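User: Could you check the structure of this?
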Amino acid sequence: MQLWRSRFTSREWVELLEFDPGEREVLKLVKCTYTGRPCGSGEFERTMEARLGRGLSPKPGGRHPKSAPDDAHLQLQMFTSAGEP
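Assistant: Sure, the predicted structure tokens are below.
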């Protein structure tokens, strides 16, 4: 409680509790809560990524693209398919 008392006066605390964020902000908070993503600006997100040492932004969905086959794989494929009709 001491931290709150040192940060807010009783009037500021009442104003904070009476604040109405509006429907748009509430929907954003609900979405971020549901997805587990940070609820803040891009700068806030980048700051938190740097502090936590991990990515927080959404990544592209779906499977990773297949990597190109290397030379050894191509040679093996040519060798095994050489006897096929």
